[in-house]
């Protein structure tokens, strides 16, 4: 079996993990908190029987928030254990906690750490969000009788190819899950091929999110007072910003806005803009209104609805480099048209449906993306309505997933 070899590799990598946490903690101090939890060592007593939900990072935690709201509507007294893998995910997860809930880091996937985690918290069941399936966690949950499901599940063709190469490790992991609830029929097919028991295709939870109306209104008010269109590069990734800056015309008559995907890169991206010869203004320095500059930097967390309200169009980060694209659903729900590059394999069906609905445009590369973005920004009224209609048409996953999770608890 491959799992013992995998476990040896994970054990050998633990010193590297500690070093990585120290390095990341320089930019994000959250990585330096509760470090021993990563190795299955948890302080204090805890109450058994919570529903465990694992949301590795910011995007998964936001999807988990939608599920949590639906669960609490059905079962108000439900107690939760939230686990995460990133500092941004854990910070976002704090907002979801109520009396009786708990929060922790997911342990490093070694048998000892996972066993300590399960023995300490003794969850009634576990729900992994989207993609996070770990071999030892899956196997030990099954061995201890803890039902474990994968919700809002997706698996790209690229990821499926990786699971095929490691089928001796991945198939038993997927096969140990009690249930998988997929986003799309294509995801369901790929997950089944990977060895999962798919028990439903519910759609994407993120369609059920309600954007922050106050943020949208504030962003729109700033945009209308500006007097010129705003083109945003939303959730930009490393390597994409430099290409974006090279493609920017100096006299397009629009305001440029860049919102990096990862907060630890805010300073780096601001530096890239300045090095390219553009003036820079950062959201963190604004008072009652944005400051004048060639390029604005959206360097805040939890304000994407404000940025979409502020923008006439958004270029989709992660889609102009072979990174699979970021999620475009929030943009559509805010009525912001999207221009996406060629690489959207992480959200292939949502991207295709958005394009078919007229809520998104596909381009071949960054230069074309900037040109189309400017054109859309100057006349996007029909596309805005298409965005809102597209977002409304695909809601309903939260209620279906919540019912399935509660069924798992009763099983």
UniProtKB/TrEMBL annotation:
Gene3D superfamilies linked: 3-Deoxy-D-manno-octulosonic-acid transferase, N-terminal domain, Glycogen Phosphorylase B
Reaction equation(s) it catalyzes: lipid IVA (E. coli) + CMP-3-deoxy-beta-D-manno-octulosonate = alpha-Kdo-(2->6)-lipid IVA (E. coli) + CMP + H(+)
EC number: 2.4.99.12
UniProt GO molecular function: Kdo transferase activity
Keywords: Cell membrane, Lipopolysaccharide biosynthesis, Membrane, Transferase
Record InterPro entries: Glycos_transf_N (IPR007507), Glycos_transf_N_sf (IPR038107), Kdotransferase (IPR039901)
GO terms classed as biological process: lipid A biosynthetic process; lipopolysaccharide core region biosynthetic process
Pfam families, per the entry: Glycos_transf_N
GO cellular component labels: plasma membrane
Domain spans labelled 3-deoxy-D-manno-octulosonic-acid transferase N-terminal: 34-209
Protein localization: Cell membrane
Catalytic residues, chain numbering: 60 (proton acceptor)
SUPFAM superfamilies assigned to the protein according to its UniProt record, in alphabetical order: UDP-Glycosyltransferase/glycogen phosphorylase (SSF53756)
Site (Transition state stabilizer) residue list: 130, 206
Domain of life: Bacteria
Keyword Nucleotide-binding among UniProt keywords: no
Pathway connected to this protein: Bacterial outer membrane biogenesis; LPS core biosynthesis
Keyword Cell division tagged: no
Described function: Involved in lipopolysaccharide (LPS) biosynthesis. Catalyzes the transfer of 3-deoxy-D-manno-octulosonate (Kdo) residue(s) from CMP-Kdo to lipid IV(A), the tetraacyldisaccharide-1,4'-bisphosphate precursor of lipid A.
Protein name stated in the entry: 3-deoxy-D-manno-octulosonic acid transferase
């Amino acid at each position: 079996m491959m799992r013992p070899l995998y476990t040896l590799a994970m054990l050998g990598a633990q010193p590297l993990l500690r070093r990585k946490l120290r390095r990341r903690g320089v930019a994000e101090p959250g990585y330096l908190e509760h470090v021993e939890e990563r190795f299955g060592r948890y302080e204090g007593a805890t109450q058994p029987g919570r529903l465990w939900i694992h949301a590795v990072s910011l995007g998964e935690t936001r999807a988990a928030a939608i599920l949590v709201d639906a669960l609490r509507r059905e079962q108000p007294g439900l107690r939760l254990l939230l686990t995460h893998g990133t500092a941004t995910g854990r910070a976002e997860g704090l907002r979801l906690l109520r009396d009786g809930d708990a929060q922790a880091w997911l342990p490093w996937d070694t048998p000892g750490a996972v066993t300590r985690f399960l023995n300490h918290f003794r969850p009634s069941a576990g729900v992994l969000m989207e993609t996070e399936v770990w071999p030892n966690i899956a196997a030990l949950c099954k061995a201890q009788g803890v039902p474990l499901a994968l919700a809002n599940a997706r698996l790209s063709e690229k990821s499926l190819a990786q699971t095929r190469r490691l089928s001796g490790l991945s198939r038993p992991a997927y096969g140990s899950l009690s249930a998988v609830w997929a986003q799309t029929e294509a995801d369901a097919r790929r997950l089944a091929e990977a060895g999962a028991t798919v028990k439903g295709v519910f759609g994407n939870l993120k369609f059920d999110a309600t954007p922050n109306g106050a943020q949208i209104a504030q962003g729109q008010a700033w945009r209308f007072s500006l007097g010129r269109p705003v083109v945003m590069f939303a959730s930009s990734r490393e390597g994409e910003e430099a290409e974006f800056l090279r493609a920017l015309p100096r006299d397009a008559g629009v305001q440029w806005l860049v919102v990096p995907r990862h907060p630890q890169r805010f300073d780096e991206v601001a530096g890239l803009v300045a090095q390219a010869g553009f003036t820079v203004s950062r959201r963190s320095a604004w008072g009652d209104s944005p400051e004048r500059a060639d390029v604005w930097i959206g360097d805040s967390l939890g304000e994407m609805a404000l940025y979409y309200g502020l923008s006439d169009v958004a270029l989709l980060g992660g889609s102009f480099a072979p990174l699979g694209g970021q999620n475009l659903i929030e943009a559509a729900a805010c009525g912001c048209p999207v221009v996406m590059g060629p690489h959207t394999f992480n959200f292939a069906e949502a991207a295709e449906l958005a394009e078919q609905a007229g809520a998104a445009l596909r381009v071949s590369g960054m230069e074309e993306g900037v040109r189309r973005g400017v054109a859309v920004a100057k006349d996007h009224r029909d596309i805005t309505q298409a965005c809102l209609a597209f977002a409304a048409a695909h809601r309903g996953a939260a209620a279906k997933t919540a019912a399935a999770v509660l069924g798992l608890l009763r099983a």
